[in-house]
Write a structure and sequence with these properties.
By secondary structure, the chain is α/β, with parallel strands linked by helices. It is built from ten helices and 13 strands. The protein has two domains: 9-165 and 197-222, Rossmann fold (3-Layer(aba) Sandwich); 170-194 and 226-283 and 298-305, UDP-galactose 4-epimerase, domain 1, CATH 3.90.25. Strands 3-2-1-4-5-6-11 form a seven-stranded parallel beta sheet, with helices on both faces.
Length: 320
């Protein structure tokens, strides 16, 4: 696929994260001559990323509006990947709303910028049941309104993935570890529906969106080939890891207690009460917008992880 305007300089916010690292690798492989500017507070922690051709790690605070404007200097494309799954109202507002506003305003002041790709999520809605869904919807609205109000707005693409899996994800690897440790797995939100999508397919969607002419509908629903409940996902992961355990779905009240307890543990929690509220909305493609097939991508299923997890009895660390 030949882009109408091959990007010369792409800025990637969140480029050092789980999805961002894969996006950087795909972009570097697709367009070896393109420069990739990746802001991060800790460049030393992303040395592997710096080894990719064209990648420039820049010590910066993406939450600083002045630095956002400076980082976009000379860029003709922006990929915005920064997001959080857990937090309070202040954290979601800061990351999904205020941060987006800073970057949207900066993008509107850079007339050379041609494309903006924002990775959002399925099920976002201003009336959603969770802080996560409402704040992500607010971020999408800010991109649309701010860029439309500018004199020469860059083309906007909004990618909405379901839960993203891959060899380095925390989601499937943690469920594999838990099933190695416990004889049975109690699970909140066991009947919530998802359409798991491979990180490589989301990254490929970013690349192909940058390469393609702007679409009439800026939204692309990034979903895998199967609609599965959370219970089915956990069971599939257990089977792939050779340690499948019985999964006991918890009623909502018990699920809230479990999510609250998990939220008190150190580090990023596996699940929070806000996650449970998000699960009230099926995390599956609506069919109202184009999907991955519109970009020529055949989505991979969870079984693509076969062979990734360490065999049973060989420890809890997955192979990468």
């Amino acid at each position: 696929m030949s882009p109408p305007h091959t990007p010369r300089l792409i800025v990637l916010t969140g480029g050092t994260g789980f999805v961002g690292r894969t996006v950087c690798a795909r972009l570097a492989a697709r367009w070896p001559g393109v420069r990739l500017r990746v802001p991060t507070r800790r460049p030393a922690a992303a040395r592997a990323l710096a080894a990719l051709p064209g990648v420039e790690l820049v010590a910066a605070d993406v939450h600083d509006p002045a630095q956002a404007l400076r980082l976009l200097d000379g860029a003709d494309a922006l990929v915005h990947l920064v997001a959080i799954l857990h937090g309070d109202a202040t954290a979601f507002e800061r990351t999904h709303v205020t941060l987006v506003r800073h970057w949207a305003q900066a993008a509107a002041q850079r007339p050379v910028l041609r494309r903006v790709v924002h990775v959002s999520a399925l099920g976002v809605s201003p009336d959603g049941p969770s802080l996560y869904l409402r704040s992500k919807a607010a971020g999408e609205r800010i991109w649309r309104e701010t860029l439309t109000a500018s004199g020469q707005p860059p083309a906007l693409a909004l990618l909405r993935p379901s839960v993203i899996f891959g060899t380095e994800d925390r989601f499937t690897n943690l469920f594999a570890r838990l099933q190695r440790l416990a004889p049975v797995l109690p699970l909140a939100g066991a009947d919530a529906r998802f359409q798991p999508v491979a990180v490589g397919d989301v990254a490929e969607a970013v690349v192909r969106t940058l390469a393609a002419p702007p679409a009439a509908d800026p939204v692309v629903e990034c979903a895998g080939p199967e609609v599965l409940t959370l219970r089915q996902i956990v069971q599939r992961v257990g089977t792939l890891a050779g340690c499948a355990r019985p999964v006991i779905g918890l009623p909502e009240a018990a699920g809230r207690l479990q999510a609250s307890a998990l939220g008190l543990l150190p580090g990023e929690p596996l699940m929070s009460v806000d996650n449970l509220l998000s699960m009230r909305v099926p995390n599956v493609a609506s069919g109202r917008h184009p999907g991955l097939d519109s970009l020529g991508i055949t989505a991979a299923g969870l079984d693509s992880l076969a062979g990734h997890f360490a065999p049973r009895g060989h420890g809890a660390t997955p192979r990468s």
